Amino acid sequence: METTETLAIARRRNLPYAEFERDYLIPNRPVILTGCMENWPALSKWSPEFFKREYGAASVTVEGEESTLGAFIDRVLDSSPAHPSPYLKDVVVKDLGGRKLMNDIEPFCEYSFPNWLPGDYLVSKVKNLFNSAQIELFIGGEGTKLGEIHYDYIHAHTVLCQIYGRKAFTVFPPEDAPWLYAKGPMAAIKDLDSVDRERFPLFDRATPISFVQEPGEIVFLPSGWWHTTRLLSASIAVGVNFANASNWAAVIQDLRESSSLARLPLVGTALATYLSALGRAKEARGPFAGADELGIVPAQTRLEA
Which of 139, 187, 191, 239 is 20 to 30 A from 299, comparing alpha carbons? Predict the structure, then answer.
Protein backbone atom coordinates (compact mmCIF):
# COMPACT_ATOMS: atom_id res chain seq x y z
CA MET A 1 0.00 0.00 0.00
CA GLU A 2 1.32 3.42 -0.87
CA THR A 3 1.40 5.83 2.03
CA THR A 4 0.53 9.44 2.56
CA GLU A 5 4.24 10.20 2.16
CA THR A 6 4.01 9.32 -1.52
CA LEU A 7 0.49 10.63 -2.15
CA ALA A 8 -0.65 14.14 -1.35
CA ILE A 9 -3.38 16.63 -2.17
CA ALA A 10 -2.32 20.15 -3.07
CA ARG A 11 -3.38 23.28 -1.20
CA ARG A 12 -4.02 26.16 -3.59
CA ARG A 13 -4.72 29.71 -2.46
CA ASN A 14 -6.98 32.01 -4.48
CA LEU A 15 -6.80 29.61 -7.40
CA PRO A 16 -8.16 31.18 -10.61
CA TYR A 17 -11.15 29.25 -11.91
CA ALA A 18 -9.46 28.50 -15.24
CA GLU A 19 -6.61 26.76 -13.41
CA PHE A 20 -9.03 24.90 -11.16
CA GLU A 21 -10.90 23.67 -14.24
CA ARG A 22 -7.72 22.67 -16.08
CA ASP A 23 -5.79 21.08 -13.21
CA TYR A 24 -8.52 19.59 -11.01
CA LEU A 25 -12.08 19.66 -12.35
CA ILE A 26 -11.46 18.12 -15.77
CA PRO A 27 -8.76 15.65 -14.60
CA ASN A 28 -11.05 14.67 -11.67
CA ARG A 29 -8.40 15.39 -9.04
CA PRO A 30 -9.13 16.57 -5.47
CA VAL A 31 -7.66 19.80 -4.15
CA ILE A 32 -7.81 21.91 -0.97
CA LEU A 33 -8.79 25.49 -1.79
CA THR A 34 -7.91 28.38 0.50
CA GLY A 35 -8.63 32.09 0.48
CA CYS A 36 -12.18 31.61 -0.81
CA MET A 37 -14.07 31.96 2.49
CA GLU A 38 -12.26 34.89 4.05
CA ASN A 39 -15.22 37.26 3.65
CA TRP A 40 -17.79 34.85 5.09
CA PRO A 41 -19.42 36.20 8.27
CA ALA A 42 -19.89 32.56 9.30
CA LEU A 43 -16.17 32.22 10.07
CA SER A 44 -16.49 34.60 13.01
CA LYS A 45 -20.14 33.91 13.94
CA TRP A 46 -20.86 30.21 13.65
CA SER A 47 -20.09 27.94 16.58
CA PRO A 48 -22.00 25.21 18.42
CA GLU A 49 -23.12 27.83 20.93
CA PHE A 50 -24.36 30.09 18.11
CA PHE A 51 -26.62 27.38 16.70
CA LYS A 52 -27.92 26.46 20.14
CA ARG A 53 -28.72 30.09 20.90
CA GLU A 54 -30.22 31.08 17.54
CA TYR A 55 -31.78 27.82 16.32
CA GLY A 56 -31.93 25.58 19.38
CA ALA A 57 -35.69 25.02 19.12
CA ALA A 58 -35.48 23.78 15.52
CA SER A 59 -36.41 20.13 14.94
CA VAL A 60 -33.72 17.97 13.35
CA THR A 61 -33.28 14.30 12.57
CA VAL A 62 -29.87 12.95 13.55
CA GLU A 63 -29.06 9.40 12.45
CA GLY A 64 -32.74 8.50 12.50
CA GLU A 65 -33.56 10.12 15.86
CA GLU A 66 -35.73 13.23 16.28
CA SER A 67 -34.23 15.97 18.42
CA THR A 68 -34.11 19.69 18.87
CA LEU A 69 -30.97 21.28 17.51
CA GLY A 70 -30.20 22.61 20.99
CA ALA A 71 -30.31 19.15 22.56
CA PHE A 72 -28.09 17.81 19.79
CA ILE A 73 -25.58 20.64 20.31
CA ASP A 74 -25.31 19.63 23.98
CA ARG A 75 -24.22 16.19 22.77
CA VAL A 76 -21.68 17.80 20.43
CA LEU A 77 -20.17 19.82 23.26
CA ASP A 78 -19.92 16.69 25.45
CA SER A 79 -18.48 14.56 22.64
CA SER A 80 -15.14 12.78 22.97
CA PRO A 81 -13.30 10.06 21.01
CA ALA A 82 -14.45 7.54 23.61
CA HIS A 83 -18.06 8.73 23.49
CA PRO A 84 -18.60 10.56 20.20
CA SER A 85 -21.75 12.41 19.32
CA PRO A 86 -23.77 11.43 16.24
CA TYR A 87 -23.32 13.40 13.01
CA LEU A 88 -25.87 15.93 11.80
CA LYS A 89 -26.11 16.07 8.01
CA ASP A 90 -28.65 16.67 5.26
CA VAL A 91 -29.96 19.84 6.92
CA VAL A 92 -30.57 22.41 4.18
CA VAL A 93 -29.13 25.73 5.31
CA LYS A 94 -31.82 27.92 3.75
CA ASP A 95 -34.56 25.75 5.30
CA LEU A 96 -33.03 26.11 8.75
CA GLY A 97 -32.25 29.82 8.75
CA GLY A 98 -33.48 31.34 5.50
CA ARG A 99 -31.75 34.33 3.95
CA LYS A 100 -30.19 35.28 7.30
CA LEU A 101 -28.03 32.15 7.42
CA MET A 102 -27.35 32.15 3.69
CA ASN A 103 -25.91 35.66 3.99
CA ASP A 104 -23.29 34.24 6.34
CA ILE A 105 -21.79 31.99 3.64
CA GLU A 106 -21.69 34.46 0.76
CA PRO A 107 -20.14 34.98 -1.64
CA PHE A 108 -20.29 31.19 -2.03
CA CYS A 109 -17.55 29.04 -3.52
CA GLU A 110 -17.54 29.70 -7.27
CA TYR A 111 -15.76 26.39 -7.94
CA SER A 112 -19.12 24.64 -7.42
CA PHE A 113 -20.65 26.42 -10.42
CA PRO A 114 -22.09 25.89 -12.89
CA ASN A 115 -24.29 23.41 -11.06
CA TRP A 116 -26.65 21.64 -13.42
CA LEU A 117 -28.39 19.52 -10.76
CA PRO A 118 -31.05 21.93 -9.41
CA GLY A 119 -33.89 22.80 -11.75
CA ASP A 120 -37.02 21.45 -13.39
CA TYR A 121 -37.19 18.00 -14.99
CA LEU A 122 -39.92 16.15 -16.84
CA VAL A 123 -39.16 12.92 -14.97
CA SER A 124 -40.28 13.23 -11.34
CA LYS A 125 -37.72 10.73 -10.01
CA VAL A 126 -34.90 12.68 -11.62
CA LYS A 127 -36.35 16.00 -10.42
CA ASN A 128 -36.50 14.83 -6.81
CA LEU A 129 -33.08 13.19 -6.94
CA PHE A 130 -31.22 16.06 -8.57
CA ASN A 131 -32.91 18.80 -6.55
CA SER A 132 -31.81 17.13 -3.32
CA ALA A 133 -28.42 18.72 -4.10
CA GLN A 134 -28.76 21.73 -1.80
CA ILE A 135 -26.29 23.61 0.38
CA GLU A 136 -26.30 21.48 3.52
CA LEU A 137 -25.10 21.87 7.09
CA PHE A 138 -22.86 19.32 8.83
CA ILE A 139 -22.25 19.37 12.60
CA GLY A 140 -20.53 16.85 14.84
CA GLY A 141 -18.37 16.54 17.95
CA GLU A 142 -14.82 15.51 18.69
CA GLY A 143 -14.30 11.87 17.76
CA THR A 144 -17.36 11.65 15.52
CA LYS A 145 -16.73 9.51 12.45
CA LEU A 146 -18.43 9.20 9.13
CA GLY A 147 -17.25 5.64 9.22
CA GLU A 148 -18.60 4.33 5.95
CA ILE A 149 -16.30 4.75 2.97
CA HIS A 150 -18.40 6.01 0.07
CA TYR A 151 -18.52 8.28 -2.93
CA ASP A 152 -21.24 10.88 -3.26
CA TYR A 153 -24.54 10.10 -4.93
CA ILE A 154 -24.95 9.86 -8.72
CA HIS A 155 -21.21 10.54 -9.23
CA ALA A 156 -21.68 14.20 -8.28
CA HIS A 157 -18.71 16.39 -7.41
CA THR A 158 -18.67 17.90 -3.91
CA VAL A 159 -17.25 20.97 -2.21
CA LEU A 160 -17.00 20.83 1.59
CA CYS A 161 -16.40 24.17 3.32
CA GLN A 162 -15.00 24.00 6.86
CA ILE A 163 -16.27 26.83 9.08
CA TYR A 164 -15.50 25.73 12.64
CA GLY A 165 -13.17 23.05 13.99
CA ARG A 166 -10.89 20.55 12.29
CA LYS A 167 -11.70 17.44 10.28
CA ALA A 168 -9.49 14.50 9.23
CA PHE A 169 -10.11 13.00 5.78
CA THR A 170 -9.06 9.76 4.19
CA VAL A 171 -9.79 9.55 0.48
CA PHE A 172 -9.22 6.94 -2.21
CA PRO A 173 -9.22 7.36 -6.01
CA PRO A 174 -12.11 5.82 -8.00
CA GLU A 175 -9.91 3.03 -9.33
CA ASP A 176 -9.48 1.69 -5.79
CA ALA A 177 -13.05 0.33 -5.83
CA PRO A 178 -11.97 -3.35 -6.12
CA TRP A 179 -9.59 -3.00 -3.17
CA LEU A 180 -12.38 -1.45 -1.08
CA TYR A 181 -14.76 -4.31 -1.94
CA ALA A 182 -17.23 -1.74 -3.19
CA LYS A 183 -20.76 -2.32 -4.35
CA GLY A 184 -22.36 0.73 -5.87
CA PRO A 185 -21.40 3.88 -3.94
CA MET A 186 -20.57 2.06 -0.69
CA ALA A 187 -17.45 0.13 0.33
CA ALA A 188 -17.80 -3.08 2.28
CA ILE A 189 -15.04 -1.84 4.59
CA LYS A 190 -16.77 0.22 7.26
CA ASP A 191 -13.99 1.36 9.58
CA LEU A 192 -10.40 2.10 8.56
CA ASP A 193 -9.25 1.71 12.16
CA SER A 194 -10.16 -1.99 12.23
CA VAL A 195 -9.92 -3.50 8.73
CA ASP A 196 -10.25 -7.28 8.78
CA ARG A 197 -7.29 -8.29 6.57
CA GLU A 198 -8.45 -11.90 6.39
CA ARG A 199 -11.83 -10.86 5.06
CA PHE A 200 -10.46 -8.02 2.91
CA PRO A 201 -6.94 -9.11 1.84
CA LEU A 202 -6.90 -6.86 -1.25
CA PHE A 203 -7.26 -3.72 0.85
CA ASP A 204 -3.46 -3.51 1.06
CA ARG A 205 -3.47 -2.59 -2.64
CA ALA A 206 -5.51 0.54 -1.96
CA THR A 207 -3.90 3.98 -2.01
CA PRO A 208 -5.36 6.08 0.83
CA ILE A 209 -4.56 9.77 1.08
CA SER A 210 -4.99 11.40 4.48
CA PHE A 211 -5.10 15.09 5.35
CA VAL A 212 -6.62 17.51 7.85
CA GLN A 213 -9.04 20.24 6.79
CA GLU A 214 -8.73 23.49 8.74
CA PRO A 215 -11.31 26.27 9.22
CA GLY A 216 -11.57 28.45 6.12
CA GLU A 217 -10.55 25.63 3.77
CA ILE A 218 -12.64 24.07 1.01
CA VAL A 219 -12.11 20.46 -0.06
CA PHE A 220 -13.06 19.64 -3.64
CA LEU A 221 -13.93 15.93 -3.87
CA PRO A 222 -14.42 14.94 -7.50
CA SER A 223 -16.87 12.47 -8.93
CA GLY A 224 -16.36 8.92 -7.74
CA TRP A 225 -13.69 9.62 -5.11
CA TRP A 226 -14.11 7.45 -2.02
CA HIS A 227 -13.89 9.19 1.33
CA THR A 228 -14.48 9.01 5.05
CA THR A 229 -13.93 11.57 7.81
CA ARG A 230 -13.19 11.85 11.52
CA LEU A 231 -13.75 15.04 13.51
CA LEU A 232 -10.78 16.25 15.55
CA SER A 233 -12.91 18.76 17.47
CA ALA A 234 -16.43 20.08 17.42
CA SER A 235 -16.99 20.81 13.74
CA ILE A 236 -19.32 22.86 11.55
CA ALA A 237 -19.21 22.75 7.77
CA VAL A 238 -21.40 23.32 4.75
CA GLY A 239 -21.26 21.52 1.44
CA VAL A 240 -23.03 21.00 -1.85
CA ASN A 241 -23.05 18.38 -4.58
CA PHE A 242 -22.77 19.61 -8.14
CA ALA A 243 -22.54 18.45 -11.72
CA ASN A 244 -21.71 20.12 -15.00
CA ALA A 245 -20.03 19.31 -18.31
CA SER A 246 -17.06 17.78 -16.46
CA ASN A 247 -19.09 14.90 -14.96
CA TRP A 248 -22.53 15.03 -16.61
CA ALA A 249 -21.81 11.84 -18.58
CA ALA A 250 -20.87 10.05 -15.34
CA VAL A 251 -24.11 11.24 -13.71
CA ILE A 252 -26.15 9.91 -16.64
CA GLN A 253 -24.30 6.59 -16.58
CA ASP A 254 -24.88 6.27 -12.84
CA LEU A 255 -28.62 6.69 -13.37
CA ARG A 256 -28.64 4.15 -16.20
CA GLU A 257 -26.93 1.59 -13.98
CA SER A 258 -29.38 2.06 -11.12
CA SER A 259 -31.29 -1.07 -10.19
CA SER A 260 -34.58 0.06 -11.71
CA LEU A 261 -33.27 1.39 -15.02
CA ALA A 262 -30.78 -1.45 -15.49
CA ARG A 263 -33.78 -3.73 -16.03
CA LEU A 264 -35.30 -1.31 -18.56
CA PRO A 265 -32.58 -0.57 -21.12
CA LEU A 266 -34.88 1.26 -23.54
CA VAL A 267 -36.08 3.58 -20.77
CA GLY A 268 -32.48 4.14 -19.72
CA THR A 269 -31.51 5.05 -23.29
CA ALA A 270 -34.39 7.51 -23.59
CA LEU A 271 -33.50 9.09 -20.25
CA ALA A 272 -29.86 9.43 -21.29
CA THR A 273 -30.87 11.13 -24.52
CA TYR A 274 -33.13 13.53 -22.63
CA LEU A 275 -30.49 14.41 -20.03
CA SER A 276 -27.79 14.85 -22.67
CA ALA A 277 -29.96 17.38 -24.49
CA LEU A 278 -30.82 19.07 -21.20
CA GLY A 279 -27.14 19.35 -20.38
CA ARG A 280 -26.56 21.33 -23.56
CA ALA A 281 -29.39 23.67 -22.59
CA LYS A 282 -27.96 24.10 -19.08
CA GLU A 283 -24.53 24.84 -20.49
CA ALA A 284 -26.04 27.76 -22.38
CA ARG A 285 -27.13 29.32 -19.06
CA GLY A 286 -23.55 30.29 -18.33
CA PRO A 287 -20.96 29.83 -15.58
CA PHE A 288 -23.26 30.37 -12.61
CA ALA A 289 -26.18 28.16 -13.59
CA GLY A 290 -27.91 26.76 -10.52
CA ALA A 291 -27.14 29.67 -8.17
CA ASP A 292 -30.68 31.07 -8.32
CA GLU A 293 -32.23 27.67 -7.62
CA LEU A 294 -29.91 27.18 -4.64
CA GLY A 295 -30.73 30.65 -3.33
CA ILE A 296 -27.07 31.67 -3.04
CA VAL A 297 -24.86 34.46 -4.37
CA PRO A 298 -21.59 33.01 -5.71
CA ALA A 299 -18.22 34.68 -5.94
CA GLN A 300 -17.83 35.88 -9.53
CA THR A 301 -14.13 36.40 -10.12
CA ARG A 302 -14.55 34.86 -13.58
CA LEU A 303 -16.58 37.92 -14.56
CA GLU A 304 -14.08 40.29 -12.95
CA ALA A 305 -11.02 38.85 -14.70
Answer: 139
CATH number at residue 20: 2.60.120.650
> Could you tell me the residue range of the domain that residue 227 belongs to?
11-296
**42 within domain boundaries:** yes
Distance CA 163, CA 140 (A): 12
| 11 Rama class: left (phi>0) / alpha (psi -120 to 50) / beta | beta
Residue 4: predicted pLDDT: 41
Cβ of 162: how many Cβ atoms within 10 Å?
Answer: 24
Q: What is the pTM of this model?
A: 0.94
HSE-CB of 187 using CA atoms within 13 angstroms:
31
CB–CB of 166/214 below 8 Å? yes
Beta strands 31-34 and 218-221, pairing class: antiparallel
Q: Compute the C-alpha angle 202/220/130, nearest 5°.
A: 95
- At 205 the three-state DSSP class reads helix
pLDDT digits (tens, 9 = 90+) for 145-197: 986 899 999 999 999 999 999 999 999 999 999 999 999 999 999 889 889 99
Specify the number of domains making up the chain: 1
